[in-house]
Design brief:
By secondary structure, the protein is mainly alpha-helical. It folds into two domains: 54 residues, Arc Repressor Mutant, subunit A, CATH 1.10.10.60; 138 residues. It contains eleven helices and no strands. The protein is globular. The relative contact order is 0.11.
Length: 222
């Protein structure tokens, strides 16, 4: 059967995404050029990348989206279960954060994805990007809203949920660098414990006082 133009375009796009994912994971998102990705994917120049993705940011978004569907599905199911059982404890929410992403440790493409996410989370502009990332992930936006119930009142103002997400992403990226491993259960369980501890850690009197002072200063400027 003769291959159609649509099939060829889809095949080229998949090849570009797979190549970009591998190179971005191995060399770093700041160290790989569009030209290198095109060459490694067997394309003569960057025109194919520009045709399919437009620019570098859209390419990275496509690379991440290629592995996100299963994570979204798994996290949504865990949040549905929390809703159904009315179990709002911190470890359940931490598990819903960690386990769907940790499932990606099982495949090479998944491990590459985790390494890229860890790089993005470590960028200095991640704070400004976090809201946009949530908009692209309905399950994470839902997790962010639901998990507030298990935190101290001041927890949200201290960015507890982002800190837990950051720890989860960085640790999974570090683990992914080790390659395929037979046993992940202990690592995943301990990471869930750490994320749950971040969400529920007691807030000291000193931190409460500093929070109060910060709030007063900000109120005075408005």
């Amino acid at each position: 059967m003769q291959q159609t133009t649509t099939d060829r375009n889809a095949g080229t796009r998949e090849k570009l995404v797979a190549t970009a994912r591998m190179l971005l994971a191995e060399r770093g998102i700041e160290r790989v050029s569009m030209r290198e990705i095109s060459r490694e994917a067997g394309q003569g120049n960057v025109s194919a990348l520009q045709y399919h993705f437009g620019d570098r940011e859209q390419l990275i978004a496509a690379v991440l989206a290629s592995e996100n569907l299963e994570v979204e599905t798994r996290r949504a199911a865990l949040l549905d279960d929390i809703d159904a059982r009315s179990v709002g404890d911190a470890r359940s929410f931490a598990s819903a954060l960690v386990r769907p992403a940790a499932s990606m440790l099982a495949t090479e493409a998944g491990r590459e994805h985790l390494r890229i996410v860890a790089q993005i989370v470590n960028r200095s502009d991640i704070g400004a990007r976090f809201e946009a990332m949530l908009e692209q992930s309905p399950s994470m936006a839902r997790w962010r809203t639901m998990s507030a119930s298990c935190m101290p009142d001041e927890g949200a103002r201290l960015h507890r949920r982002f800190t837990a997400y950051q720890l989860c992403s960085v640790e999974l990226g570090r683990r992914a660098e080790l390659g395929a491993r037979r046993e992940q259960q202990l690592f995943v369980s301990h990471l869930i414990d750490l994320c749950a501890a971040i969400l529920t850690a007691p807030i000291s009197d000193e931190t409460k006082e500093l929070l109060s002072e910060t709030k007063k200063r900000r109120s005075g400027k408005e």
